[in-house]
Write a structure and sequence with these properties.
By secondary structure, the chain is of the alpha+beta class. Helices cover 18% and strands 30% of the residues. The strands form 2 sheets. The chain has a two-stranded antiparallel sheet with strand order 1-2. It has a two-stranded antiparallel sheet with strand order 3-4. The longest helix is centred in the middle third of the chain and has 13 residues. The chain is elongated and about 80 Å long.
Length: 103
């Protein structure tokens, strides 16, 4: 029982649960992601239609044009940020729709 009390000494009871007071610090933190070049194109009636696909096929077959290279590119998401998240505080994350705030 003494060992259990020693292990739980740094834990604080919150809402009838035992939670550890943990502070998160990031210094010069950077994050990048691989993104497909066409992934952020806006779908329109034209570029999502059968005719658009036929136009691309026509260019490739009859004009001898090469298909567009779909190699992923590396995009910087966070660049050298400093962040401190303190226990017991609430934080608000703001950003445009579908920008990855929940992930």
């Amino acid at each position: 029982m003494k060992k259990i009390n020693e292990m739980l000494a740094g834990w604080v009871p919150l809402n009838n649960k035992l939670e550890s007071p943990l502070e998160v610090r990031m210094v010069d933190f950077s994050y990048t992601a691989l993104i497909q070049p066409g992934a952020n194109k806006v779908k329109t009636v034209f570029n999502s239609s059968f005719l658009y696909d036929m136009k691309k096929l026509w260019k490739r077959v009859f004009r001898g044009e090469e298909p567009e290279a779909e190699l992923p590119i590396r995009k910087v998401i966070l660049d050298k940020i400093n962040l401190v998240i303190e226990p017991g505080k609430s934080y608000l994350i703001l950003g445009p729709p579908q920008s990855g705030k929940t992930s």
